Amino acid sequence: MSKTIQFSSAQTFSLVLLRILIGWHFLYEGVIKVYSPSWSAKGYLLSATYMESFFRWLASESMISIVDTLNIGALLLIGFGLIVGFKSRWASILGIALLLLYYLAHPAFPGYPQGPSEGSYWIVNKNLIEAAALLVLYLFPTETSYGLERLFSKSQQVTPNP
């Protein structure tokens, strides 16, 4: 038996808008890294203030090219999936994992130096907020209502209420 989730038009619009905006952020970050041949995550990883040995291992000569490629690929896939509404639940999970890695490299924990950021944070920073927003998108999917997934899904559809 299929389960139908009922959202109002405003709720659906808000969730789709959130999905597209976060998708744009991920896609843009991936594209900008593709077109910046000198970009590498090495500096960010080497400056990690938490779990330093893990992030230094990721920044090692034997790992950094793999890490850079996976990072760019993940950013592009997450962004594309969220924008077009295809496999956006998978994209949300992958995005949460990636953002938590970014967060753990430079957490906003009391007593730890602030990493590269645009402000001063205490426990909560932009990476954690965006990860929480992706959790909302995972729990309240909209791709079967507005997205490419609609073409492939017949079981669970999100329909807006008037």
Automatic annotation (TrEMBL):
Keywords: Membrane, Transmembrane, Transmembrane helix. Pfam families: DoxX. The keyword Membrane applies. The chain crosses the membrane at residues 12-28, 63-83, 90-109, 121-140. Signal peptide: none annotated. InterPro entries: DoxX (IPR032808). Its main location: membrane. It comes from the Bacteria. It is found in: Membrane. It is a multi-pass membrane protein. The keyword Membrane applies. This is DoxX family membrane protein. It comes from Shivajiella indica.
